[in-house]
Amino acid sequence: MDFRNPLPQRLRDGLNLTIITVHAAGEVGDVIIGGVSDPPNCKSMFEKMQHFWKYNDNIRNLILQEPRGRASMCTNLVLPPCDSRADAGFLIMESDEWVPMSGSNTICTTTVLLEMGMIEMKEPTTKVSLDTAAGLVTVTAECEGGKCKSVAFDNVPSFVWELDCPIEVPGLGTVKVDVAWGGMIYVLVDAESAGMEISSVNGANLVKVGEMIKRAAQAQIMPVHPENAEIKGVSNFVWMGKPEVIGEEIRAYNAVVVSPGRLDRSPCGTGTCARMTVMHARGQLKVDQVLRHVSPIGTEFPSHIRGLTKVGKYDAVLPTVKGSAWITGFKQVVLDPQDPFPEGFRVGDAWHLGDRK
Ligand SMILES: O=C(O)[C@H]1NCC[C@@H]1O
């Protein structure tokens, strides 16, 4: 056997992605660090995201769908930033969409950028500015011995469109939902009042009922971001667990149903921001008070509101979310030109197929 040149020529010639595999609080947010060209003539990361949606969405399908991907994972693409203040730019791929912002993915990407030496790590604290499709996000990483121990990101302002908005859900009746922006657009429902228990063993039911409510909300309401009319429509769903006051802090479980229907393994950074703005609007969370948001697998994002602002006509909060990520591997992904599934596939045993055939 000759191992000197193990990769056949036809695989070396085609798509060849260098990926660092990583998870934050259990949620996979792999990071592509090589093999994808920067789209030309884009003035913002939002324009780069639109470019991929329009011309290169096949890469998202290839990476996230089977056989290379799976339902419960995301992938990030590191690119040069457009904002001159930023150290790096990145775009976020989820199963059903490119999303403007994501918490677990910001934590994964920052950890990879620092631990792989793509941005210089300074101990004990490294400040990083990341250009995202939702805007500039500043990150403070606690670092020690070459490890990025934690990542706290100052998210874009979050605000509420609706509190207690009645939605007619076929099979369930009227359900009251909150609608908020946390870097993605969320519908949020109090789990206890809907008779839902947040636990991993109840995962299938949380997904099934959450998807029913989310799809009904998508059909009945159309929130539009006041500063970017192209960001519109509900993306994900949050089950809000009962808040428990512990000293000065609040601890609460949550379960986020990520489209097309699976639970976020992490406490969901953008969902946490959406929830904090809802809790603040209801007088349940004060500025600087910690919300320790807990995922169905028990991982935590300690978070807080660092100040108040306005987004268009809406009162908004400035949310900060903290978590940790761990690199799990390194891989090269290729596409054989003869592969019958150049964009992968989904099977109903593991995927909510939704409207797909
Ligand atoms: O942390 C978050 O914001 C997310 N986790 C996966 C789905 C959401 O983007």
From TrEMBL:
Active site: 102, 268
Database matches in PANTHER family: BIFUNCTIONAL TRANS-3-HYDROXY-L-PROLINE DEHYDRATASE_2-EPIMERASE (PTHR33442:SF5), TRANS-3-HYDROXY-L-PROLINE DEHYDRATASE (PTHR33442)
Family annotation (Gene3D superfamilies): Diaminopimelate Epimerase, Chain A, domain 1
UniProt GO MF annotations: 4-hydroxyproline epimerase activity
Domain of life: Eukaryota
One Pfam family per UniProt: Pro_racemase
Designated name of the protein: Proline racemase
Family from the record: Belongs to the proline racemase family.
SUPFAM superfamilies (alphabetical): Diaminopimelate epimerase-like
